[in-house]
DNA sequence: CGCCATGTGGAGAGAATTTCTCCGCATGGC
DNA sequence: GCCATGCGGAGAAATTCTCTCCACATGGCG
């Protein structure tokens, strides 16, 4: 992220290492809140950030300050992605698709909903460069006008599903399969939004293909290694899971 | 649930009120584990079950006993639904669809994955009437043979998505919108699994249609009422969310 | 109807976890 | 090279959760 989320002119200039630590803390906080929820222990965040607990408290005296910081960071990235996607002139459906995959990577579903409610709307929204809702809705309307998405689909159908898909499978521990699988699932879901009579895609499904055997291995591993949920991709056949190639596939088949 | 999950001949016959309390505890435990995860405080479970904490400890001396009890209960219901679905001769796709909506209602995604890993496989699987994997996979194969699901879909594509869709939106508090929306999302997802060249459904999307305005209201409510996530269905337009009608729609359009 | 084995509730001690401060030491920047 | 700014970690205080004990209640049987 190149945006430094400048705190404005009121904040005294932070020393270089302090600024670096602040960013590490926010990154760690986003990870930990994603995995464990907004009440996760602060030591864990400090540990993952590689700083002492005192440093964390110095920079974010109350837990809510951390919540706010993470929310601002994630929302800023989200709004940037939305505006960039909306600026694409030609293919609204493809732009929307790419935006949704980005939102999935941001894991907004794991972070935001549990943080909202911890501060008032004004607190956060004031520091943000706009809102993601309008550009995304504009994309949806355009994609529908282009006949690429069925007309009775509404805004919540493309946004609220991201919240669910972006949450890690419960049981602790993020897994590489998890993330790639979410993108595969999103692709299937987006296929389901096409309008009546539109041609079905012939693109093979990307990402991990979990067949019965792989499923049973995953399950066994979950049961036996207590909390060994960090199953890696070794166990399932991979087609492809990079976003670029994914979107390229879509374009080739679809445009 | 009519199955009483009889503990076998070893257990001394429980007094009538004790048996009732035991069921209340299991029901409450399922709810609380669903909402808060497997480490949720036990007082909360006792409170929701309407019993004292001592009663809970008497029936389930260790936390894992509670985990096991809930897992057995949910898995038994799941296996029953799977076998019932697989027994339907004519329309495998419809049966699969109905089963997945049932699994969603069971909220297996919220309960099971976080409980697995808390006990060994044998502990639980011994008490179960089989396994849900085989009948469900058989359904999938049959639906593919009938040309109703694209052939490169694998078992994990229809099961793992349930785990994500059945988790409540984070931020505490279950919401009526949540549950109905998950079914709507599942329907869209299932549409995405149809094979190339199959006709698109003309069925209107059921469940809550969250348009931009409704979305903003939901968001506002989340932010302002700290943890007031129990948004009710009043704010979004409802088409229909009963499973029967949903499946009936599918059949009318699809068969 | 009445007895008693079985079951119940809740207070509270004890354990575990988490919060948050204090102070001696390190280091970036002029 | 100086010093304002920043750092780390120990540990006290607070909070939360666990689990037992015992006086009281009640279902089931004769």
The fraction of residues assigned to DSSP E strands of chain A is under 5%
The protein's oligomeric status is homodimer
Largest interface, with counts of residues having CB < 8 Å to the other chain, equals:
A-B, 72 and 72 residues
What is the CATH architecture assignment of the largest domain in chain A?
A: Orthogonal Bundle
N- to C-terminal distance of chain A:
31 Å
How is the largest sheet of chain A built, in terms of strand order?
1-2
Structural class, from helix and strand content of chain A?
A: mainly alpha
CATH fold call of the largest domain in chain A: Tetracycline Repressor, domain 2
CATH C-level label of the largest domain in chain A: Mainly Alpha
User: Largest sheet of chain A at a glance?
Assistant: 2 strands, antiparallel
């Amino acid at each position: 992220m190149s945006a430094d989320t400048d705190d404005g002119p009121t904040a005294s200039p932070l020393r270089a290492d302090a600024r670096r630590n602040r960013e590490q803390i926010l990154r760690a906080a986003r990870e930990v809140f994603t995995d464990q929820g907004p009440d996760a222990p602060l030591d864990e965040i400090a540990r993952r950030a590689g700083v002492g607990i005192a440093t964390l408290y110095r920079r974010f005296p109350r837990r809510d300050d951390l919540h706010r910081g993470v929310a601002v960071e994630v929302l800023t990235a989200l709004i940037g992605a939305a505006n960039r996607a909306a600026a694409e002139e030609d293919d609204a459906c493809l732009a929307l698709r790419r935006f949704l995959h980005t939102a999935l990577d941001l894991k907004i579903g794991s972070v935001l909903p549990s943080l909202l409610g911890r501060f008032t709307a004004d607190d956060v929204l004031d520091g943000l460069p706009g809102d993601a809702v309008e550009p995304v809705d504009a994309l949806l309307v355009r994609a529908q006008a282009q006949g690429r998405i069925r007309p009775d689909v509404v805004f919540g159908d493309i946004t609220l599903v991201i919240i669910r898909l972006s949450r890690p499978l419960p049981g602790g521990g993020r897994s590489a399969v998890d993330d790639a699988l979410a993108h595969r699932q999103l692709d299937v879901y987006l296929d389901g939004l096409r309008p009546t009579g539109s041609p079905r895609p012939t693109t093979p499904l990307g990402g991990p293909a979990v067949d019965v055997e792989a499923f049973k291995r995953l399950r066994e591993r979950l049961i036996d290694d207590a909390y060994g949920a960090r199953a890696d991709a070794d166990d399932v056949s991979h087609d492809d899971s990079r976003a670029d190639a994914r979107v390229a596939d879509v374009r080739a088949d679809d445009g």
